[in-house]
Amino acid sequence: MEPILDNHLHLDPEHGRGIEATKDFSRAGGTHLLVVNKPSWHLGELPESGADFQHVFETTLGVVEESTTILDGRAWPVLGVHPGLISQLVEAGYTPADAGEIMRAGLELAADHTDEALALKSGRPHYEVSEEVWDASNEVLKHALSLGVEHDCAVQLHTEGSEDLTEITEWAEERGLPAHRVVKHYAGGRLAGPTPSVISRKDELRRAAEEGEPFLMETDFIDDPDRPGAVLGPKTVPRRVEWLREEGYDGAISTAHVETPEQVYGIDTVGTMK
Question: What is the DSSP letter of 80?
Answer without folding.
Answer: E
